[in-house]
Write a structure and sequence with these properties.
The chain has helices spanning 3-10, 17-26, 40-46, 79-96, 138-143, 155-164, 182-198; strands at 35-37, 54-58, 72-76, 105-109, 115-124, 128-135, 146-150, 202-212, 217-219, 222-226. It is α+β, with helices and mostly antiparallel strands. The longest helix is centred in the middle third of the chain and has 18 residues, at 79-96.
């Protein structure tokens, strides 16, 4: 079990998003480079580590859906904007959720658009750990294009999941873009399967979205909920 997951289960809490990103990176699942800022001033200082534009995301055990409370700020163009956005975001959330435990903000560069995918894990009471892969964006909202497989995955299973998506032809490239990096997606599916197999305390995990590119991919949002033994 990953040490961060072990520590979190010991204290009966879920992983905060920077911790979830660290766990993903440990398993070879790409995220943007990031820092965890605890104050506006620290955010301004840490912003020098990355190219602009940048993104701020609130870190709080009490906030799962960040966008609904103004907990995500995009398109920050310099260090001063990062500092001001941190202050404004905290003030807005404290007005809406005065009891929320705010732990700072995750800071990272804003990634280029890619083909949006959803990858998740749920626990089925009959068959156990199940992975879900789906196309994101309009495909997820309107068409529900998702497939499921029981863990552990083999390379054959991973490729079959991709092929079983109804709209898998979008991976071949559309509107002048080249084919997308399905080898990177297969590697990520296998790594994600290994992650949930080796960390059975993960009750639910959603990577939404993953951005798939012509070369590589990047998980830009992660939610990891844990189960706790008595």
């Amino acid at each position: 079990m990953h040490p961060l997951i072990q520590q979190a289960t010991t204290h009966h809490r879920n992983l905060l998003e920077p911790e979830a990103w660290e766990v993903l990176n440990a398993y070879g699942i790409e995220t943007p480079p990031f820092r965890w800022a605890r104050s506006p001033r620290e955010a301004k200082q840490l912003a020098t580590h990355f190219p602009f534009p940048q993104v701020l995301k609130v870190v709080s055990p009490d906030i799962l859906h960040k966008t609904e409370v103004g907990g995500v700020v995009l398109g920050l163009r310099d260090e001063n904007e990062v500092e001001a956005a941190f202050e404004a975001m905290e003030q807005k959330i404290r007005r809406t959720l005065p009891e929320a435990d705010l732990r700072g903000a995750l800071l990272c560069p804003q990634m280029q658009p890619g083909r949006e995918l959803i990858l998740g894990k749920v626990e089925d009471p009959q068959i156990g750990s199940v992975l879900m892969l789906g196309l994101g964006g309009i495909f997820a909202e309107l068409l529900g294009d998702v497939v499921f497989r029981k863990t552990p995955l083999s390379a054959f299973d991973a490729k079959e999941m991709i092929g079983d998506l109804k709209f898998h032809d979008v991976f071949k490239g559309v509107r002048g873009s080249g084919p997308l990096d399905l080898e990177a997606l297969v590697r990520t599916l296998l790594a994600f399967s290994r992650l949930v197999e080796e960390n059975p305390a993960i009750k639910e995990c959603d990577l939404n979205p993953i951005l798939l590119y012509e070369k590589g991919l990047c998980a830009v949002d992660a939610r990891m909920l844990l189960s706790f033994s008595e």
